[in-house]
Write a structure and sequence with these properties.
By secondary structure, the protein is an alpha+beta fold. The chain contains 31 helices and 26 strands. Among the domains are: 201 residues, Cytochrome Bc1 Complex, Chain A, domain 1; 203 residues, Cytochrome Bc1 Complex, Chain A, domain 1 (2-Layer Sandwich). A seven-stranded mixed sheet has the order 1-6-7-4-9-3-2, sandwiched between helices. A six-stranded mixed sheet has the order 15-16-20-17-19-18, sandwiched between helices. A six-stranded mixed sheet has the order 23-24-22-25-21-26, with helices on both faces. 58% of the residues are buried.
Length: 942
């Protein structure tokens, strides 16, 4: 989400941050969740400071939230708050451009920001010994931001590419990012898309930016939250030192927002867009403000309607009627009354009218009859579990607290809301449904593929939307410039490092061959498990690409004793989550549950792993959902590029297989059952249990639920050579007319996870494209504004996996981005990486690893992945030294073996009329494939 506007917020990401004007006590028998522990003080300049110390982590999260968002975009400047968010990462009086990233990412942390309707938040997670430096930096950009033409122009170009990527190149981008806002408001500035428009971005000026900063970016309009490993007294002293002398302007903060008129009759629109693979429909209703006492019941209502496979929308539209490929809602509490929206992306062959009727029927059912006690309990348990999971990390706790303060006006409401949710009754839910889901106040948008001759409705920002102008006197707008290097205040030195805590593990092998590893962490009442079999997509038979994924998907769709609906209800009623996936080398089923429900959750978990029935009707449902998803993917440049690249690098080898409509159609019930019987067996698996269990308790769970699973007598099949392929490099252009961006990718074959070159190559790849400050993003995004992000990935597998550099850009810049990628790939193997750069990129890897083991699910996933490669769990403890010990020469030598642009496959997907001829001049072997002729089953892709 870096410099990224969040408009479609997931309900449960925010669920613990709402408010109720009448907090209630939890219902009898509800799980008592430990409240957030914090201190609060206000500086003389108005800055509110919240502190949440925790000695059990090696990290610290610093978050500064400003009470200004897209609602405050000036007249004629939609997208301005979001554009300004980007500029906050540029220069200050004491920090040149990219210096902020040096202080955060280059020491093993990360920084990010998001623009919402009502506020903008900036947040960092860094090793705890860098807290003082981040506080210094946040204060510097609050008090002395440099705004000049160069930084303004470069970030405006980046924002345009973000808009093209998220809106113009995404099949449903206009619906989510534009029409949701525009269709719901006639007066209130919520009606302007927060991501803006190209025209309004072009109209903005440097003077606008300076006025915006002077108006809103002030200490009395901000909240500072610090969570993690620190000393309270020391934090207070640093905050006073760095933030205390930032002046509070002697003028009010503009807060005059218009009141949206009460809608008295429904509105309906039909719109047509290019590259829309499946019709969609949105139904939206006015939603009360965040201070409404109805918010707790609305969260429960939303969970019943849309959360999980047992939810009403999924069960009705996706599972039973099979008219929708995907259903979801948008519930984001806003300071002024907002919009609660329900969406359906229809299945192939279904109409938006059918989707509208089905959604309307479920909405009416929720209004007209009380929900059941079982539904009510399930929703509450899901919300409680989600809240506990969010509090596992310093970042999560800080986010929840800051969100409560800014969005809802009171830090205490994070906990009081949870109590109110647990006290919500069925009558409360029905009352709120009748109040909000009023058919005379609804807005419907039917979103259809463009058709020749079809003319739909036009949805644009209403001309009556009210917005203020920036009227701050020019004399009160400070202008800052970067100080001469000798005059800059230098950041404080880092403190003494705090080591990440790696949990101790115990392991044993059951009599049936199942390897069990337990990693206790008793800080929160959560238990996670990861069951991984050492077989995945590379074991798919010829002409059955996707079989491993279909098999995994069907595990929780019926067992000998439970059907799919019963499984979903049983799992979700516990507040638990079970998910199954298949990767190239392995398949896995994960479990997250509250510790007090672990036994019940494991009973279902073991049942779906051991006893799936692969019923024919469930296969057909799964097949159609995969086909619908594939149809959407084949409208997105980045997704098409990924599929084409697999074929280009690996051809007909197992790693080259791509799931296609043809291969999906060929999969039978017997194929799935045979795959499960062959590979899903205890002696081909590892079970990792982490969280609030002792080693003995973990082994007892494993023995009870998996110990009597018999080991098959047949031997496991030999593993295929998944990556064997030696075709010459290709340049593939997939022509996707009328798409808003081109995806550019370069691919090479890398190494296996156990190869001696793995760690040197991992470090080299991180220098090339492993983060915001890596070389690809620096050249393509930061210096030239050609993309919202450029990166490279190294996928080390059981056999040599792919290395892929990728970016999306405007169509006419595709060749330029390719040439920049090529130059950086060539350079990484030719010259030694400077020590400072190498140290920084190592820190990125080490910091990311440290954050991954902060959560119970992260620990379980890390250990089970190590087991797949035959590596012991103790490898977690050597990861830091494995990275640290890589030398510049080792990284260069490894890069010279694998990073060769002449051997790279190139894939470009976009509107080829803008770049094909130019690409052929630099890649003479370029071949052009119209998207409607793309054949994923063929090595040639034709």
């Amino acid at each position: 989400m870096k410099r990224f506007v969040t408009l479609i917020a997931a309900a449960f990401a925010l669920v613990a941050c709402a408010t109720s004007s009448a907090p209630q006590q939890p219902a009898a028998g509800a799980l008592e969740v430990a409240p957030l522990q914090y201190t609060m003080r206000t500086l003389p300049n108005g800055l509110r400071v919240y502190a949440m110390p925790d000695a059990n982590t090696a990290n610290v999260s610093v978050q500064v939230w400003y009470d200004v968002g897209s609602i405050d975009d000036p007249e004629g400047r939609s997208g301005f708050a979001h554009l300004f968010e980007h500029i906050m990462f540029k220069s200050t009086r004491n920090m040149p451009e990219q210096f902020f990233d040096r202080l955060t990412e280059d020491v093993g942390g990360f920084n990010n920001a998001s623009t919402y309707d009502d506020f903008t938040n900036y947040y960092e997670v860094v090793p705890a010994n860098h807290l003082q430096r981040v506080l210094w930096a946040e204060a510097d950009r609050m008090g002395s931001l440099v705004v000049n033409e160069e930084s303004f122009d470069s970030e405006r170009d980046v924002v345009k590419e973000e808009l093209r990527q998220r809106v113009l190149a995404s099949p449903y981008g206009p619906l989510f990012y534009m029409y949701l806002n525009q269709a719901n408001y006639t007066v209130h500035p919520y009606g302007r898309p927060g991501i803006g428009s190209i025209e309004d971005l072009d109209a903005a000026t440097v003077e606008d930016v300076r006025a915006f900063h002077a108006t809103y970016y002030r200490p009395d309009n901000a909240v500072l939250v610090v969570a993690g490993n620190f000393d309270q007294a020391q934090l207070d002293a640093w905050v006073d030192e760095y933030f205390g002398d930032i002046a509070r302007p002697n003028r009010p903060i503009p807060r005059d927002y218009p009141t949206e008129p009460v809608r008295t009759q429904p509105r309906e629109y039909t719109v047509y867009q290019p590259n829309v693979p499946l019709p969609a429909v949105m139904i939206s209703y006015p939603q009360p403000a965040s201070t409404s006492p109805d918010l707790p019941a609305l969260y429960v209502l939303d969970a019943i309607l849309s959360n999980g496979d047992s939810s009403r929308l999924y069960q009705s539209l996706v599972y039973q009627q099979q008219i929708a490929a995907q259903v979801f809602t948008n519930l984001e509490a806003t300071q002024d009354p907002g919009a609660y929206s329900v969406f359906a992306i229809l299945s192939e062959g279904q109409t938006a009218e059918a989707g509208q009727a089905a959604l309307s029927a479920e909405i009416a059912r929720l209004r007209d009859a009380p929900v059941t006690q079982a539904e009510l309990d399930e929703a509450k348990n899901e919300i409680v579990t989600s809240t506990i999971q969010g509090r596992e990390t310093a970042y999560g706790r800080a986010f929840e607290l800051a969100d409560s303060v800014i969005r809802f006006g009171d830090a205490a409401y994070a906990d009081r809301l949870l109590a109110a949710i647990q006290a919500t009754t069925a009558a409360d839910v029905q009352r709120v449904a009748r109040s909000i889901l009023n058919e005379q106040r609804r807005v419907v948008v039917r979103y259809l593929p463009a058709q020749e001759g079809a003319t739909g409705d036009t949805i644009t920002t209403s001309p009556t939307i009210q917005a203020r102008s920036l009227t701050i006197p020019q004399s009160e707008i400070p202008t800052f410039t970067l100080a001469a290097e000798a005059e800059r205040e230098q950041p404080p030195a880092a403190g003494t490092p705090v080591n990440a805590r790696i949990p101790q593990t115990s392991q044993r092998t059951l009599a049936n061959g199942l390897r069990v590893i337990v990693a206790p962490n008793r800080s929160l009442p959560l238990v996670s498990a990861d069951f991984r079999v050492a077989s995945g997509a590379s074991a798919d038979p010829a002409n059955r690409a996707g079989l491993a994924s279909v098999t995994a998907d069907l595990l929780n769709k019926g067992t000998a004793t439970r059907n799919a609906t019963e499984i979903a209800r049983a799992v979700e009623s516990l507040g638990a989550q079970i998910g199954a996936t298949a990767g190239p080398d392995s398949s896995a089923v994960s479990l997250q549950t509250r510790a007090d429900r672990a036994g019940d959750a494991f009973a279902i978990y073991a049942d779906v792993i051991r006893n799936p029935t692969f019923a024919g009707e469930e296969l057909e449902r799964s097949r159609q959902q995969f086909l619908d998803g594939l149809q959407v993917a084949l409208s997105e440049p980045g997704s098409i590029a990924g599929m084409a690249m697999s074929r280009a690098i690996y051809g007909t080898a197992p790693y080259g297989a791509v799931t296609s409509p043809t291969s999906l159609a060929a999969i039978t019930r017997d194929d799935a059952a045979r795959y499960h019987a062959t590979y899903w067996r205890p002696d081909n698996a590892v079970l990792v249990i982490s969280g609030d269990v002792s080693a003995d308790e973990g082994f007892a769970l494993a023995e009870r639920y998996f110990g009597n699973w018999p080991r098959p007598s047949a031997a496991l099949p030999a593993r295929p050579d998944a990556s064997a392929y030696a075709a010459p490099a290709r340049t593939i252009v997939v022509d996707l007319p009328d798409t808003g961006q081109a995806a550019v990718a370069m691919g090479l074959r890398g190494v296996a996870r156990t190869d001696a070159d793995y760690f040197p190559l991992l470090v080299a790849n991180n220098v090339l494209g492993g983060g915001y400050s890596a070389r690809l993003n620096t050249e393509i995004r930061i210096r030239r504004g050609l993309s919202y992000g450029a990166n490279s990935s190294l996928s080390a597998r059981l056999a040599p996996g792919p290395i892929v550099a990728s970016a999306q850009t405007r169509n006419d810049a595709a060749v330029q981005v390719y040439e920049l990628m090529r130059a950086e790939i060539d350079r990484i193997g030719d010259t030694l990486t400077p020590d400072a750069e190498l140290t920084a990129r190592k820190a990125v890897l080490i910091g990311s690893f440290g954050r991954s083991v902060e959560t119970t699910s992260g620990v379980a996933g890390q250990i089970s992945a190590l087991a797949l490669y035959g590596l012991p769990p103790e490898s977690l403890g050597t990861y830091v030294s494995d990275i640290t010990n890589v030398t510049a020469e080792q990284a260069r030598t490894a890069a010279s073996r694998y990073f060769d642009p002449d051997r790279a496959d190139v894939v470009v997907v976009g509107d080829a009329q803008h770049f094909y001829d130019g690409l052929r001049r630099v890649r003479r072997n370029a071949e052009r494939i119209p998207v409607d002729q793309l054949n994923l089953d063929s090595e040639s892709l034709r």
